[in-house]
């Protein structure tokens, strides 16, 4: 039974992979990554090439911010459209006519979406860094690897969140609207809300509350974690020095991996539960 289950998951992964390769949305996001990366590289080179400062640091931070904003949108939008489209077309009703469980179906879709999204980010980021070489800045494979490591937890978390959303809505239009709302709230509104709410709390509770609130949002957690992993936590002030030491410790590494798994698994479990209940 276990081997049959794995084979069925592989079949769903292969199907989803082929569908995503034909998707104009995926090609558009990869092209957007490349275009914005090239534009930011050119803009940065034109403004700061004569200052003698470290251009690669600025460019890496620009591309990092680009990943933090676009990767969540890619993940939640494409995954929600994929599942909601199949639900509206009646394809999910056929699950009961095949030896395929809802768990195998959701896991297969998640893996297929995740692999396709990673390839799109890789293609766009590679083109952006090739542009650095054209502008005389020199591309860095290490920086590319850092951006990919940043995009992996975001794409994983928001792909699973998109599948949960797709299991809740019946039309592609609702999937698009819900995806844009979740993306805008988690990427932009959430952080501002946290900063506005913290002064209301007693000072003794602010640091603990900040840690919990940042952990609840994968975008903020990845943003802070990326800075700490680069050893630049000092920019947040001396209080966060201990955060950096904790995150870069072995226990912190294990905790980070567990957190990424939770970001992905919890929405997937809710999506499986919804599909089991039927249309």
TrEMBL record:
Keywords: Membrane, Transmembrane, Transmembrane helix
GO molecular function: ABC-type transporter activity
GO cellular component labels: plasma membrane
Bilayer-spanning residue ranges: 25-43, 63-83, 110-135, 141-165, 177-201, 251-271
Position of the signal peptide: none
One Pfam family, short name: ABC2_membrane_2
Tree of life domain: Bacteria
The protein, known as: Cu-processing system permease protein
Organism of derivation: Aneurinibacillus migulanus (Bacillus migulanus)
Taxonomy of the source species: Bacteria, Bacillati, Bacillota, Bacilli, Bacillales
């Amino acid at each position: 039974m276990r081997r049959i289950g794995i084979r069925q998951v592989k079949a769903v992964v292969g199907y989803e992979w082929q569908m995503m390769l034909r998707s104009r949305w995926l090609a558009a996001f990869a092209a957007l990554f490349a275009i914005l990366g090239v534009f930011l590289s050119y803009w940065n080179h034109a403004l700061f090439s004569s200052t003698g400062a470290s251009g690669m640091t600025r460019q890496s931070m620009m591309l990092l911010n680009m990943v933090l904003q676009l990767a969540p949108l890619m993940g939640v939008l494409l995954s929600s459209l994929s599942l909601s489209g199949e639900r509206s077309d009646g394809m999910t009703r056929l699950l009961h006519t095949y030896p395929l469980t809802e768990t195998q179906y959701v896991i297969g879709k998640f893996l297929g979406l995740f692999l396709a999204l990673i390839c799109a980010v890789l293609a766009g980021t590679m083109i952006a860094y090739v542009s650095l070489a054209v502008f005389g800045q020199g591309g860095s494979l290490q920086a590319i690897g850092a951006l990919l490591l940043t995009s992996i937890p975001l794409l994983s978390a928001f792909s699973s969140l998109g599948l949960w959303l797709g299991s809740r809505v019946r039309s592609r239009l609702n999937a698009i609207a819900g995806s844009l709302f979740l993306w805008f709230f988690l990427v932009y509104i959430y952080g501002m809300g946290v900063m506005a709410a913290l002064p209301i709390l007693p000072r003794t509770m602010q640091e603990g509350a900040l840690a919990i609130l940042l952990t609840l949002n994968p975008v903020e957690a990845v943003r802070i974690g990326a800075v700490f992993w680069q050893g630049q936590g000092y920019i947040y002030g001396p209080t966060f020095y201990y955060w950096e030491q904790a995150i870069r410790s072995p226990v912190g590494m294990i905790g980070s991996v567990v957190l990424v798994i939770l970001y992905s698994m919890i929405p997937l479990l809710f999506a499986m539960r919804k599909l089991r209940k039927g249309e």
